[in-house]
Recover the amino acids of this structure.
């Protein structure tokens, strides 16, 4: 969701597209050559489990976070239903959905103490309340078959709300209703399952903790300090956990795919053949998202299995894929950051006038000075476009080096011998180069040429839809 989606600004790719894509592949290959023969220390025999690290409930922060959630939900229900006039769409789709995950990827998962949904589940995790309502003070044991499926299913639905059904889910009242229902779900989840619900059933906790493994600080989570140090703990080799991590990755690529001019042209052809009804296009996009998820899972899985067999480590499909997925997460994060950095630096400015009048009605009693009123205007060009380009290139290079190092460490430890381990690295290198080239191509498409007019509906992602409306002059 580059800013181009919101304000219509374009600039040419500074180098030819082919050179840009091949340059990214060359970075991966160069990183591989640098670390290929480096020795790797053996991993500890009993690594910490792959689960969301739980912090104790902090009453003050919990009260503040739940109060803020209540105020935002109230603003969504009673405030203006025009997207640029109400604070809820911008806070949720720009701050919570975009800025917070990016901050976790840089700093680590700092969010749990101020996550209102995790705090609601912790408050409900009371033996006294459970005894009164359920007849037993002990929580129900989280079923093994349930795994990470609740968090994965909810993240999938949220991704559809952002990327497919955005015209519906940028309406403040709809967002408020969804957050209210989700809060009730978290209360019941904490009451029934206790701490296990926060670890595997609460979508935001699971997502922030997964991105937080990239961050420099651990905030109490297992592992040493350092960028990507948390990814030294392998992912749980279950279908639900793999599906959740892949959703984080694929949603980035699907968002990029929807931004390409060629895809817009293809969608118009599809829409003309299936009819102009918006719901049919939404079904088509949903199926595309699912197919893309399955295709990437299959391709990554095949290359991971090939690497496992070359290394003769005895891992099967799920184990091989779960072991190597941590090396792909930095690449996905790099493209997420490159995709959003300009968007965030510009569109977070929308919060200034919204703080002054969060419900967007003339009846709001407080009248704050500039910049917290309607006299403030967003400044889309306060930094040159080249700045964002060079930031994106730096980030992409850094995350690829990180990804290659992680893959090398994992395969060197897993291989039956040094020779077998090195043979396995060549197999996975092919997958990483391919994923790099695809992601760079998707990232560059909006910069190569003007995109044709988008399909009538849905027009953009949820955060972009909010910004499209907010970019227009607001008349309160």
């Amino acid at each position: 969701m580059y800013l181009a989606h919101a304000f219509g600004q374009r600039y040419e790719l500074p180098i030819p597209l082919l050179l840009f894509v091949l340059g990214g592949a060359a970075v991966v290959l160069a990183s591989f050559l640098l670390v290929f023969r480096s020795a790797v220390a053996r991993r500890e025999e009993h690594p910490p489990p792959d689960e969301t690290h739980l912090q104790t409930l902090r009453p003050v922060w919990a009260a503040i976070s739940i109060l803020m959630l209540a105020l935002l939900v109230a603003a969504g229900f009673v405030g203006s239903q025009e997207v640029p006039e109400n604070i809820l769409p911008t806070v949720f789709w720009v701050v919570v959905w975009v800025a917070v995950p990016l901050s976790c990827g840089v700093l680590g998962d700092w969010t749990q103490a101020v996550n209102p949904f995790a705090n609601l589940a912790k408050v409900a995790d009371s033996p006294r309340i459970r005894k009164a309502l359920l007849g037993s003070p002990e929580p129900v044991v989280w079923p093994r078959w349930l795994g990470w499926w609740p968090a994965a299913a909810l993240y999938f639905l949220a991704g559809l709300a952002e990327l497919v059904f955005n015209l519906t889910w940028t309406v403040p009242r709809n967002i408020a209703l969804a957050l209210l229902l989700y809060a009730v779900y978290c209360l019941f989840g904490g009451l029934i399952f206790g701490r296990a619900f926060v670890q595997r059933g609460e979508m935001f906790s699971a997502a922030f903790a997964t991105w937080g493994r990239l961050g420099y600080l651990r905030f109490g989570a297992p592992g040493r300090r350092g960028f990507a140090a948390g990814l030294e703990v392998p992912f749980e080799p279950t279908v639900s956990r793999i599906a959740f991590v892949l959703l984080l990755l694929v949603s980035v690529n699907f968002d990029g795919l929807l931004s390409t001019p060629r895809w817009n042209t293809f969608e118009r052809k599809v829409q003309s053949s299936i009819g102009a009804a918006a719901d049919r296009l939404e079904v088509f996009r949903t199926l595309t998202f699912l197919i893309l998820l399955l295709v990437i899972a299959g391709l990554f899985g095949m290359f991971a299995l090939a690497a496992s067999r070359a290394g003769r480590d005895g891992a099967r499909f799920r184990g091989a894929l779960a072991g190597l997925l941590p090396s792909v997460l930095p690449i996905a994060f790099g493209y997420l950051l490159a995709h959003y950095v300009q968007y965030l630096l510009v569109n977070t400015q929308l919060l200034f006038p919204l703080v002054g009048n969060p419900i967007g009605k003339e009846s709001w009693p407080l009248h704050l000075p500039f910049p917290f009123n309607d006299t403030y205007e967003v400044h889309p060009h306060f930094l040159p476009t080249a700045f964002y380009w060079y930031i994106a290139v730096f980030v992409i290079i850094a995350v690829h080096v990180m990804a290659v190092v992680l893959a090398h460490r994992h395969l060197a430890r897993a291989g039956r011998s040094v020779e077998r381990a090195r043979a396995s690295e060549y197999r996975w290198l092919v997958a990483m180069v391919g994923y790099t080239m695809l992601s760079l191509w998707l990232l560059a498409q909006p910069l190569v040429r003007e995109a044709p007019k988008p399909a009538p509906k849905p027009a953009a992602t949820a955060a972009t839809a909010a910004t499209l409306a907010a970019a227009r002059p607001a008349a309160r």
Summary: DSSP finds 20 helices and no strands in the chain. The mean pLDDT is 86.
